[in-house]
């Protein structure tokens, strides 16, 4: 089994940098009320090797440091780290192997997004910000048991049907989000919870007015290609 010492200085330097990024991004999960206790995890894939950095399993957020982050290969095998990796490691690895443009994955159990997952419902696209960020509804994926790559397979299968969405609500489990790096996936997780909460509130007032797909496509194109700094 390979260890980090088997990789060159460029890879080891990126591992050091990504460990710092992934450790700090777990603080954002707490800031945006996306996790409780030890639930949830962030990972980021390296550019210099087929490796990823992920949160250790069951370690409280206040104890997380860059050195406690675990380095795994894209089959989920530990390459470096004193702790056992997240119980979702196999699923993160599956996503990276099958979605080559994805370099960040986040899983949370945020309250409102998980409520939609518990009822097996897509979050309907009733907000322009949903068109911007998700290109349509936030889809629900199939029920899968934890501990293997089965959840990752469900994430990939669902997002291939909704290629503009960076989020999927795994039924009876919670949201998984993807991005060009871990920060983008954390942003998607925060946005998922925001729209899940707002659409839940809208349902209490009446029927949600869903946006036509043609308008969603225009919103998404503007947001992805024009909005912000380039």
Summarize the structure.
The chain is of the alpha+beta class and 230 residues long. Helix content is 42%, strand content 14%. The protein has helices at residues 9-31, 89-98, 111-118, 128-134, 150-161, 182-205, 213-225; strands at 41-45, 51-54, 70-73, 78-80, 104-107, 140-141, 167-170, 174-179.
Could you characterize the architecture of this molecule?
By secondary structure, the chain is α+β, with helices and mostly antiparallel strands. The protein contains 7 helices and 8 strands. Helix 1 (9-31) runs parallel beside helix 6 (182-205) and helix 2 runs parallel beside helix 5. Keywords: Metal-binding, Zinc. It holds the Pfam family Aldolase_II.
């Amino acid at each position: 089994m390979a260890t980090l010492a088997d990789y060159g200085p460029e890879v080891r330097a990126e591992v050091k940098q990504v460990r710092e990024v992934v450790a700090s991004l777990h603080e954002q999960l707490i800031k945006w009320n996306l996790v409780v206790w030890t639930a949830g995890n962030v990972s980021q894939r390296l550019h210099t090797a087929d490796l990823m950095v992920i949160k250790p399993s069951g370690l409280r957020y206040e104890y997380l440091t860059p050195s406690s982050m675990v380095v795994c290969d894209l089959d989920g095998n530990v390459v470096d780290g004193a702790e056992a990796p997240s119980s979702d490691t196999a699923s993160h690895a599956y996503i990276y192997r099958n979605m080559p443009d994805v370099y960040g994955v986040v899983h949370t159990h945020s309250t409102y997004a998980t409520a939609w997952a518990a009822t097996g419902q897509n979050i309907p696209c009733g907000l322009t910000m949903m068109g911007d960020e998700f290109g349509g509804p936030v889809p629900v994926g199939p029920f899968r048991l934890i501990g293997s790559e089965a959840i990752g397979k469900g994430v990939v299968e669902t997002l291939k049907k909704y290629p503009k969405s960076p989020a999927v609500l795994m039924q009876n489990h919670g949201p998984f989000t993807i991005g060009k790096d871990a920060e983008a996936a954390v942003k998607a997780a925060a946005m998922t919870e925001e729209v899940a909460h707002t659409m839940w509130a809208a349902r209490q007032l009446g029927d949600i007015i869903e946006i036509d797909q043609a308008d969603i496509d225009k919103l998404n194109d503007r947001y992805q290609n024009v909005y912000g700094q380039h």
